[in-house]
Amino acid sequence: MELPKLGAIQLDQLINFSTPKSWGISDPARFNALMEEAKTLVTPGYYLGDNLFTWGRNNSLFEDAAFRQAWTDNIQNDADQAIAWRRYVLACLAFNCMQQPGDFVECGVYAGSGIKTVMDYLGGKAFPKTFWGYDTFDYNPVQGHSFAGQADGFYNQVQARFDGYPQVRLIKGFIPDSFAQGMPEQIAYLHIDMNNAAGEIAALESLFDRVVSGGVIVLDDYEWSIYRGQKQAEDPWFEARGYRVVPLPTGQGMLIKR
Ligand SMILES: C[S@@+](CC[C@H](N)C(=O)[O-])C[C@H]1O[C@@H](n2cnc3c(N)ncnc32)[C@H](O)[C@@H]1O
Q1: What is the CATH number of the domain that holds 203?
Q2: How far does residue 15's CA lie from ligand 1's centre (Å)?
Q3: Are 140 and 164 in contact (CB under 8 A)?
Q4: How far apart are CA 32 and CA 228, in angstroms?
Q5: Best of 80, 81, 135 to mutate for ligand 1, by most ligand atoms within 8 A of CB?
Q6: Whose CA is closest to 192, among 171, 227, 222, 219?
Q7: Interval 26-44: pLDDT, tens
Q8: Distance CA 210, CA 130 (A)
Q9: Residue 118 placed within a domain
Q10: How many whole angstroms separate alpha carbon 238 and alpha carbon 51?
Q11: Per-residue pLDDT tens over the stretch 102-126
Q12: Pairing relation of β-strands 47-49 and 17-18?
């Protein structure tokens, strides 16, 4: 399988991106009106959405044709659209993990868009590694947070999205109990996206030692203040092992295993 290649870029062309989807805004109409004006005041290459407003950037994600295709093919809701930059962080880290021994893992799969975007970027049905996805699927395990659609039959719907992708192993059940159904021996790429501290720490307890040297760990919501409890739990967990999480502007946290 051939990895995707970047095309040539035009020095004088920059791509802008704008979506109304962000979180934590008290008056969306007023905010959107102000941002419409703000966009006219900045140099091109802006990104507005997912609680970000940046400008004067290359916006590399939109110049990578293979990524654009994988991302747009897997947009199922306005959040999937807004978090394009987060998806590109995953896609690029996953690209680099293709050279590492070990499987790919996502804890907190929901509808599968995170896994499928990465796989479609890296060969689609020809993706050459096993990708494990763990979730309760059919019920919401997180108190105070809801994920639309989680009810009986949801697992079957997500599984159907991966028809023709035999490398995907979706494990239904509560983390960490569901790890008893199977776990990879070696992990090259570990994406943890569970929106609760206890679940994410439980995933780390079970999986961290299986991540290979040079493998990557991404914590989806590490840097968003609404999920501050995750940072509170994860910082000391990593510090005890001699690691510091890198907070990214996208709200993700990442680190590379020694
Ligand atoms: C934000 S969604 C995941 C989104 C997905 N990673 C993506 O990129 O589209 C969070 C998911 O974590 C799952 N989750 C949270 N705690 C869990 C636990 N203890 N065991 C299994 N799944 C859990 C929820 O069921 C939910 O589907």
Answers
A1: 3.40.50.150
A2: 32
A3: no
A4: 26
A5: 135
A6: 219
A7: 999 999 999 999 999 999 9
A8: 15
A9: yes
A10: 26
A11: 999 999 999 999 999 999 999 999 9
A12: parallel
In a domain, 190, yes or no: yes
Query: Residue 175's Cα: distance from chain center in Å?
Result: 18
Task: Show the ligand 1 pocket: residues with CB < 6 angstroms.
Answer: 106, 108-110, 113-114, 134-136, 140-142, 147, 174-175, 193-196, 199
SS3 label, residue 54: strand
Distance 30 CA to ligand 1 centre (A): 32
Is residue 186 included in any domain, yes or no? yes
**Ligand 1 atom, smallest distance to 198 CA:** 19
Q: Is the pTM of this model over 0.90?
A: yes
| Residue 143: both structure tokens together | 């108190």
Q: Where are the alpha helices (DSSP H) in 6-77?
A: 28-39, 60-63, 65-73
Number of residues in the chain: 258
Query: Who contacts 51 (Cβ-Cβ below 8 Å, separation ≥6)?
Result: 22, 23, 24, 224, 251
Structural domains in the chain (count): 1
* Domain residue limits at 229: 77-256
- Residue 244 domain-assigned (yes or no): yes
What's the token pair of residue 166? 């035999």
Atom 6 of ligand 1, residue of closest alpha carbon: 109
Task: Determine the residue type at 170.
Answer: L
- State the pLDDT at residue 1: 83
